[in-house]
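About this split. The held-out portion is used to measure sequence recovery: a designer receives only the structure tokens and must propose an amino acid at every position. Recovery is the fraction of positions where the proposal matches the reference. Here is one held-out target exactly as it appears in the evaluation file.
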């Protein structure tokens, strides 16, 4: 089933590649793109509101107006770029502003969409938006495409690196990635920490993907150092000239861990290329 209803977070004019990627994916399925700007309240920027309590009402009113106007301006600038990219690709598109003080509004939106495209989590997001890609992946009910502001190639799905350990989450990620793959795509399967004497968990996956018409290659990391896996996956994705990485996520949102140990913060926070995550 193609991804026809695509949601993309719009947050700045600098994220042009993210918006262009959303438009390109919609072209493939004759789909629709919805841009969402997450707007926060001024009070959300402060851990302690005592500072605001001592301000004169006129000063507080000025700060609220400037805060809101700054976000409205950013939303309009980002939406203009998204709309331009969609029009150039002849893709249907709309955009709107939703609440960003909590992830609730975004979760409600993405639960009724096929795919959501989000920026990587950062320690200090713009306007302190409280909705990370991992939160959305775990509770949103669908796949999340984490996309850096700058990517080398807008068209993805020709050569894909797939992190695999045979888990339910990994299998879910594989299925969610299929609509993104082009015909005859090459899948680089990567596994880590194989158990001695255990069956080859990548074997059934390789046969399945080849039956679907994809070419595959499998490589296994023998190193026991968890902290090196993220770096290894990054190197593998770059060295094999992939345009997409696919991984499953598991566990509590606060843990922010991927299927292969606790190493995936590195992949998530600084992805070398678009990263599809699924729970």
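Reference sequence for scoring:
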């Amino acid at each position: 089933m193609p991804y026809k209803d695509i949601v993309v977070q719009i947050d700045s004019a600098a994220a042009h590649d993210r918006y262009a990627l959303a438009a390109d994916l919609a072209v493939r399925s004759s789909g629709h793109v919805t841009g969402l700007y997450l707007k926060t309240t001024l009070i959300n920027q402060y851990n302690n509101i005592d500072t605001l309590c001592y301000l004169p009402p006129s000063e507080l009113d000025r700060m609220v107006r400037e805060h809101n106007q700054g976000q409205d301006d950013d939303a309009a600038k980002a939406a203009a770029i998204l709309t331009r990219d969609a029009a150039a690709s002849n893709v249907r598109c709309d955009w709107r502003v939703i609440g960003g003080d909590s992830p609730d509004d975004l979760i409600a939106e993405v639960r009724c969409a096929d795919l959501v495209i989000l920026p990587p989590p950062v320690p200090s997001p713009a306007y302190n938006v409280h909705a990370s890609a991992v939160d959305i992946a775990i509770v949103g009910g669908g796949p999340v495409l984490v996309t850096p502001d700058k990517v080398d190639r807008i068209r993805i799905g020709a050569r894909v690196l797939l992190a695999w350990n045979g888990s339910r989450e990994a299998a879910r990620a594989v299925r969610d990635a299929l609509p993104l793959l082009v015909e005859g795509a090459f899948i680089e399967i990567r596994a880590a920490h194989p158990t001695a004497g255990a069956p080859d968990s990548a074997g059934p996956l390789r046969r399945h993907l080849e039956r679907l018409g994809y070419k595959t290659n499998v490589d296994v990391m023998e190193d026991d150092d968890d902290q090196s896996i993220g770096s290894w996956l990054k190197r593998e994705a770059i060295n094999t000239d992939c345009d997409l990485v696919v991984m499953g996520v598991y566990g509590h949102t606060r843990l922010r861990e991927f299927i292969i140990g606790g190493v995936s913060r590195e992949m998530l926070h600084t992805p070398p290329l678009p990263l599809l995550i699924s729970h």
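Annotator remark: Residues 159-278 form a domain with the Rossmann fold fold (CATH 3.40.50.620).
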